[in-house]
Structures are given as structure tokens and as C-alpha cells.
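queue> holo job accepted (S-adenosylmethionine)
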Amino acid sequence: MAIAPLIMKTNEYGPLISPFSDRGKPIYNWHVFKHSYSKGLVEKLIEEFKLSKGSWVLDPFCGSGTTLLACKELGINSKGFDILPFSVFLSNVKTRTYEPCKLRQRLKNFNRNGKLTVKNTYLPDIKIIEKAFSNDVKDELLYLKYKINMIRDLKVRDFYMLGLLSILESVSNTSKAGGFLRIDEKNVSGKEVYPKFLSKVEVMIQDVEEFNDNSKFTNAKVNAKISDSRRFSTKRKFDAIITSPPYPNRHDYTRIYGLELIFNFVGDNDELKQIRYDTLRSHVEARKKFKSNGYKKPSTIDEIITKVKKAGLNNSKIPEMIEGYFEDMYLSLLQMQKHLKKNGKIGLVISNVRFGGVNIPVDEILAEIGEQTGLSTDIIFVARYRGNSAQQMKKFKRKPSRESIIIWKNS
Ligand SMILES: C[S@@+](CC[C@H](N)C(=O)[O-])C[C@H]1O[C@@H](n2cnc3c(N)ncnc32)[C@H](O)[C@@H]1O
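queue> job finished
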């Protein structure tokens, strides 16, 4: 029988759990990644865990690289993994040290002056692309992609590519809406692409200048790689892990960040689908990938699934997803425990969810699963309460779910 963890409400973490406080912060705001937490949250956990310059921090779901960038600013070494190639790219580009004059030199190279000399630059034939971009917008984007790919210096090339990827949503007929990419006619003209790209890159260069002037970039080591949270391996043991896995709320990152992935990271729809199947089972299209020897499914999961089935669902795969999610999280926590030093700490941000109006206490279940891997739960901080989805709200009225930070120790 698992011991109930200490659950404590606190006002301190609430404003830090979403990326909104970073909207105006240089570099943190280079790409809108709604599923991230704030720099302040990482700083607070670093303080809580008593880390100092030279410590090593891991983030096995690094997303937009918030943990890595905040660590770098404080002189703390870090490593990140993510299954999405775009996330790994974004994390690396945001945490590199640049010479602004090298970046600036390139700015004048993009003026097209009406010429069209695009060679060997295509976008994969994937349905969403046709819906997302008008032909003249697509032509302009392909021209910029072509010019960027000609830059020999890899760091400079990646920097410009991120500038381009970061304007895609604004020149497309799509909007990132919660857990999916919504078609949203914006009637953008091809003429708007180049000025938007230039001003984006200009701001990014100014941010680099500001960081360099204020010596915000320490020489801490930082690196992100593509890997699966259930199977990653590195020789190092870490002082702490600061992370946030996908919540089991059906959000599919391969769709939300579909334009970025298609634009630069996948060759065709099969490749995109493979990443979708390989992601953690937090949405119904992900598939079982690994066996979980030693995992004992907490009894609450079956009780919840019975209730959820009774309540009626709009997708019959949800019970299987819920079960798969916790199994995948067991494997992920096992990897984290293996890579954590003795007495090392984990801070993991998660939200409870509801299906058919039934509350799933994801934080408590994960705390129990963490104990199976050898971690001991220090506390669950309740940071804030989030409203249910519009669909659920209509049917079951407003029933907020808590968003929490689970703190474990490797004792
Ligand atoms: C909540 S986001 C992390 C956001 C991050 N904390 C930040 O501040 O930007 C979760 C991330 O988990 C990644 N992910 C999903 N399945 C994964 C897996 N099996 N292994 C590693 N990463 C995975 C997603 O691609 C996504 O970037």
C-alpha cells in the first residue's frame, strides 16, 4: 500500500508554471512554445535544490529548452533530450553562444529583388502544407529556406533557420490552438514574408547582443539531443532533473508543431507519422513501444478507467491511452532515477486531467509510480488550477484541475 504524499498548496509557483512571464524575455521568447514553463520556475527549483555553478541538470522532455537556457544563465551545466527533432533544434539554437557581427553580416544576403532562383528546395507533399500556405507565401518561404541552406557556418545557418521557422505560423492559415493546429484563414500576402523574417532576425540579433553585453551567457556546458525519455542513456549522473512531460490530455506535439517539423525536419508523411506513433502515449495516436518489466499498475488506474468508461467518451481509445501513459511514465521515471545522483532531486511539472467529467489525479499516481522506481516523494506543490476544455465545460460545467510540481529525492 503506497503512502499518501504530502500535497501542499502554494501561491509561489502559480505565475511561474506557464510561459507568459517570459513573453518579453530575450531569447526565451524566440519561438512560441505554449507548453513550456517559465525561466523563473527553473530558477526557483535550482534554489530549492541548492544547486550551484558547475552542477549538472537533466531535462528528458526539453521542449523549447527553458531548463537548459535558465541553467546556462546561472553557470549550471545541462543536458536535454526530446523526441521531437524541432524541440532539440530549438533548444540548441537558443543556448548557443554567438558572435553578433557574424550573424549581422548575413542580413543583407536575403533580398530577393524579384528574382526566383530556388534550386533543390521543396516541402514534403503533406496535406496540411497546402492548407497552411498560399502559393505566393510558399514561394517566398522556399526562397528564404534555399538562401539559408546556402550558409556554410552551421551555427549561423541554424540561427537564421530558427528565425524563419518562428514566423511560419504568422504567415500561415493556421493557429496553434491548445492541443492542435487550427485552420484559420488569415489572407497573408507573399510580400509580407520577407519583412517579417527580417524583423524577426533583427530582434534575435539584438537579443544576442544584449545577452553578450550583460555577460548572461556563462560558459556552462549545454547540449540537447534527440532521444526517447523511456530509453535515453548517458554516462553522466545528474544533480537534479527539472522537467515537464506531456500531460495526458490528448495534445499531439507532432500536429501542434507540424509546420515546423514539415518545413525542416521530416522528408515525408510517413516520417512524421512515425514520430507521432513514437511519442509518449499522452494522445490516442501514440503506440506502445517498450515493455515495462517490473511495473505494477496502481489499482486506482483501473478504478478510474471503469468510471471514465461509464461516463461515456467521444473516443474509445482514451482508456487505452490513460493506461499507456502511466506505463510510459514508469519507464521514463526509471530512466530518470538511474541517471540521478544519490540524494539528487527531481522537479516535475504535471497537470491532472478530466475525461467524461472524471478527475484523474495524475500527480498522485505519478508520485506512487516514482516510488516503484526507487524515488521517494518529498512533496507535491499545487501551483494552480486550470479550467477544463471548452468541450468538457459545456457538458460537465467548469471543473478546474490542479497543476502541480512533484518533488522526488533519489534516496
Ligand atoms: C510539456 S513539453 C516540455 C516543455 C518544456 N519544459 C519547456 O519549457 O519548453 C513536453 C515535451 O515532451 C516531448 N516528448 C513527447 N514524447 C516524448 C518522448 N517519448 N521522449 C522524449 N520527449 C518526448 C514533446 O516533444 C515535448 O517537447
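queue> The CA atoms of residues 7 and 380 lie 5 Å apart.
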